[in-house]
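Morning run. Coffee first, then this:
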Amino acid sequence: MAQVKAVVVEVVRPEGYAVLNAEDPLVTAMAKNLKSQVVYFSMNPNSTIVQSHCQQGGMAAIYEEGYLCVRQGDLTLRIAPAKDVPITMKGMASFMIANALAACAAAYCQGVSIAQIQAALATFTASVSQTPGRMNLFDMGTYHALIDYAHNPASYEALGGFVRNWPGECIGVVGGPGDRRDEDFILLGKLSAEMFDKIIVKEDDDTRGRPRGDAADLISKGLAQAQTAGLVEFQYETILDETTAIQTALDRAVSDSLVVILPESVSRAIGLIEERMGKGE
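And here it is:
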């Protein structure tokens, strides 16, 4: 997959820049085949790859002492505190900090001013209007609901960093596309167990060739394995219909809790949330 995705950066012209994640060995390996210049981004300011790159006069975007920064050579410029950048959810979503760093790197290497980058970071939000289905957080009054189109282990792990920072109870409405491997579904179950206090396993309307209930059963198998291991405490049940699963989770939300919905249909999930907000529930 990394080789396939490398095609994107391999076609960048010599005068252009490829923005690469310094923390992923499969991504940093792409640099040797590039005609373009390279800009790295990293959550680790002490990354040996970043340090070596900058010592040779290269550019990078780094997360240092709570700040989004750009570094070129020996010069480091602070852009903004991560907690003040809306897309990072007050700094609780580390993967969003990394995304913001990549954006900073792409802008800075093209000559966009620090002031312009700051303005963009301050006004871009994970909202229905700007990023539908990507970390859309709704204030429901006494609790919050989050909609995100996480559907594979990597996205579950990234989302988990935010969910575990939430101070109250967390309820997850989880599932996955039917064209994944059996072991992928089992892993989704295990990852869900590490994230949520209560879990409702649902299934997509389009099972992508799998028998109805098969994907949910495999996720539940992963949950059962996590429960047997006894490393975390949680409750789970299966409600195959996505709409019913979402409504059930929202009905059970307690004060200060977070209901995380990982839907097949983003628009349907948003509609269910907005309907409740319209009713003042």
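DSSP finds ten helices and eleven strands in the chain. Good start to the day.
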